[in-house]
Amino acid sequence: MPIQIKITDITCLVVNAGRRNWVLVKVTTDQDGLYGWGEGTLEWKTRSVVAAVEDLKPVLIGHDPRDVDQMVRRMLKFSFWPQGPIGMTAVSAIEHALWDIFGKSVGLPVWRLLGGKARDSVNVYTHLGLGKAESVYGVRDKHQLAELGQAVIESGYNAMKVLLLPLSHYTASAKDIDEVGASMQCLREAVGPDTEIMVDFHGRPASVALAVQYIHALDPFRPLFVEEPIQPGDARAMRDVSIQVKTPIATGERLIRIKEFESLFTERAVSIVQPDLCHCGGLSMARRIAAMAEVALIGVAPHNPAGPVASAVALHFAVSTPNFVIQEEMAGAVPWFNDVVDSPIKRVNGAWQLPDCIGLGVEVNESEARKHPYI
Which of 96, 127, 279, 303 is catalytic? Predict the structure, then answer.
């Protein structure tokens, strides 16, 4: 491999997967056959992310993709305005691809370049319906929840996330709160005590008090954590929730810059932080976030409802991150999820196995991917 490698092009391939359009990003170089893949899937902002990738391309063309941190600095500092969610998603997708190239150039898996192995397998969880949107968001009947939960276990998972709360305001009736507790009880009885259950609030309670009331209804059934009990961005309010409940609190999927995570750590506001590797600046920034969390005695459970390239990125991060807890995935979101890629992911007994690959180990079948164009 030559001393100098140059980026020659950056392109996007958009794949519609129902509720989401996956934005797959390919970075090519001046070395024959040396390129990398990343993913920048951002709900309802697909065309904006593609445009942001195009805006970033001139900043990187001609530079060495293996200088990953420096390329990230270039992308973050080239414009007068700070990058928002759209820009950070584009940065993240390109950054993934740079790591893929780096790994391929030296014949090593990316997890080796990130500091090496911290574990031999990666605990994962999926959602009801294995991630199908109608099951995740459309089911409220407690008996149907229980049936879907049992189906997840029968599919080989040991953990799942559910969305039990109705759309809420500042207060809720005793009936609504009791129904959430009853649904959790029914689900717990169906899947047993050895299955981890996480409950996503999606920030639906508009007050700390209501969030606490709902969590108290869940506490007896031991969820692994409750996610986004209130809207993100107010670390002090999140801490006010945490200190009043027994269940661990998690947040972070909608935070995009490292400074936004800092206040969570300073306040010791949560037990689990959830950066999304497609939005927070990629592996480079996620490593920094995880290190800060470790100092504050906080675990990391990355958000990932996206496509197969994002899952490969998450796998390498999880293998190499000491304070990693559990990884979200949605491989059942569409029946052809794994048809568009050759993937390094092997799931055994509810856990991804250590990948033996070069780079990220994911290869996109571009002709297959183009069968599912943007919607």
Answer: 303
